[in-house]
Amino acid sequence: MISELASSFAGSFPAQLPAQAFQGPEVNWFALSPMLALLAGALGIMVVGAMTPQWPKGLYAFVSAFTAGTAGALAMVQWDDITDTGVQTLVGGVVAFDTFAMFLTITICMSLLLVSLLTDSFLRGTPNEGPEIYALYMVAAIGGIVMASANDLIVLFLGLETLSLALYVLAASNRRSLKSAESGIKYFVLGGFASAFFLYGIALLYGASGTTNITEMVIAFRNGVDLDNSDPLALAGIAMLIVGLGFKVAAAPFHVWTPDVYEGAPSPVTAFMASVGKAAAFAAMIRVLVTALPFFRDDWGPVIWALAVLSLVVGSFLAVVQTNVKRMLAYSSVSHAGFLLVGVEAARNTAGEALPGDGIASVALYLMLYSVLVIGSFGVVTVVSKASGDEDGDSSLDSFKGLAKRRPTLALAFTVFLLAQAGVPLTSGFIAKFGVIQAAVEEESYVIAVIAMVAAVVAAFLYLRIMVNMWLADSDGGDDAEPVTIPFSAGVAIFGAAAFTLFVGVFPGWLIDAAQTVSIIAR
Amino acid sequence: MIAAIEPSWYLILAAMLFSVGAVGLLIRRNPLVMFMCIELMLNAANLTFVALAIKLGDINGQTAVFFVMVVAAAEVVVGLSIIVSILRRKPGATADDLAELKG
């Protein structure tokens, strides 16, 4: 019986291949330079940091920020190359080299730079002051970039795990706080659950198409008559992939982990999660659904539609009843995921066609603007909760009472971010929301556009509530409440983000033009 | 005489293992058992990859498994260390005891 088994297995393999030396794919190293720069930074800071005594104040953060800046600048150089020579795939067709990948790379590097500056003062005087947190940031950023530029589902999965594993550790990194450990394990269990679904989805799609490569997958499905029994397998795979991606982007009804994890994780880590995590997950969603599976767009389209509407409603309404600012911002990030899904839904209508609509461009632009906004918002929370002197960092709504009297500049910056998150004109948030809604209207998805606008109005109430607390309420301690001091590096990050928010809000043209080019995807 | 074992049997077995893992994760409350359920789900996906690679006569599905195994090993490192750091502070904690965060 065993020999029967062996022979039935042996029969399914192709005949013995002739012996030949292994030949790896050709690698264009310079095109991968943003990732390599981050890798060098992560390894360098870890190895050198382990062998030298504690570095002087702020040097770890500076190295991390400098690496992020270098990687971002290299991505801009690559952008130039792409606009000159056109899109292509690299390393044997598993990495896409297009402006979409570079746009997301620049977004992630900007986020990394801002979060590094924010983390510096936060870690000062804690046992975590050292190279580890920054090394994890950089590794997570590489994972995000790999996700955004993957042209093979297995590579995409590797990027996803690189990002997620680093984020689990970062969420649990405050070892003195039980809340941080709890948020770490919750994120780990639900994230692992989502990853398993994602992987099972890849396996089923592999069964349906015979490949994990996105380029080959598109061809296989287009000619897909020679594979028997492919449709149920492919549809089950797509469903699994959507569950996995839904968890990662924190779309309702897969959002349940978001408030707990965002509240429990150290505030700068929350900022990182909300910016890099969301940007990378949505980039992966574009790669998987819009690029790899345009053939099934009428199957996944309604699911995305439903997820978008649910996220908008759940995010906007549940945010209003929270009493902790970090939880409020977590629910608001669910409603932002809803807006981004509106953009993905708009991209569906032209998925796989030669003339792509505005969907992909609007999502990419939204991700960049939202990343800066959310880092600014959580940056203010970081500074205020650190000043409260509490071990876990008090981020209740009450701790923001009377902030305008204690530190007017900080209250002003927070007001800018909140107005932008609400989508008020002359801020970058308006440009972002206008972009996705316009893309939806152009594809004649009027219903979802109307729901999105109503949800924006409801969500505005939440942002107003925080603002009223800052400007109109008096702090509980009366006039002798401790003034909030803004550390220099955190101040640079917060006011830089605020300046970017206002600048893009007033002069959006150059960024919109850049975003328009990302619709042409290499595959 | 039994029938020859088809790759599709393995697909069914993998689907069952995946369901066991998914259901186990949702109903068990011990963090270590929940963690084992995640590993079960990942390995069910691995079995699917291998069975499909045999079915399609394509080697790429089997190479994918090696990548997943490395990922699963890395996940063990991270997961166990987070669990240990919690259990050290709260011995015998179950998922229901971890309720600092709610709202």
Helical percent range of chain B? over 70%
CATH architecture of chain B: Orthogonal Bundle
Number of helical segments with 4 or more residues of chain B: 3
What form of chain A results from the Cα inertia axes? Answer: globular
Number of strand segments of chain B: 0
User: Span from first to last CA of chain A?
Assistant: 46 Å
What's the number of structural domains of chain A?
1
What portion of residues of chain B belong to β-strands?
Answer: under 5%
Secondary-structure-based class of chain B equals mainly alpha
- Beta-strand share of residues of chain A: under 5%
Q: What summary fits the major beta sheet of chain B? A: none
Shape of chain B: elongated
Q: Can you tell me about this structure?
A:
The complex is a heterodimer of chains A (523) and B (103). Chain A is mainly α. Chain A has one domain. Helices cover 72% and strands 1% of the residues of chain A. Chain A is built from 20 helices and two strands. In chain A, helix 7 crosses helix 10, helix 12 runs parallel beside helix 18 and helix 16 packs antiparallel against helix 18. By secondary structure, chain B is an all-alpha fold. Chain B contains three helices and no strands. Chain B is 75% helix and 0% strand. The longest helix of chain B has 30 residues. The model of chain B has no long low-confidence stretch (mean pLDDT 89). Classes of the chains: A mainly alpha (523), B mainly alpha (103). At the A-B interface, helix 1, helix 6, helix 7 and helix 10 of A face helix 1, helix 2 and helix 3 of B.
